[in-house]
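Table S2 (text version). Query chain:
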Amino acid sequence: MRTSFADAEDKLLVQNPVQFEREGLRITWVYVARRMKTKRPARQLRLRLASLKRTTGSRLAASHRAS
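Corresponding structure-token output:
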């Protein structure tokens, strides 16, 4: 599958929501978009993460861990 997301963007996209989940907070996608310093809309980020979860499942965090 072809995507316009770079690997670095995917790594950031996986890491940011994990911080919300650790603290038991609801993910604020507008905040995630600002923190990633991307011009992508919050909805696109949310859909991309959902797609990554579908394709990688429980291996998501391990496969996109920061180097």
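Notes on Table S2: Residues 7-22 form the longest helix (16 residues). The helical segments are 7-22, 29-36, 42-56, 60-63.
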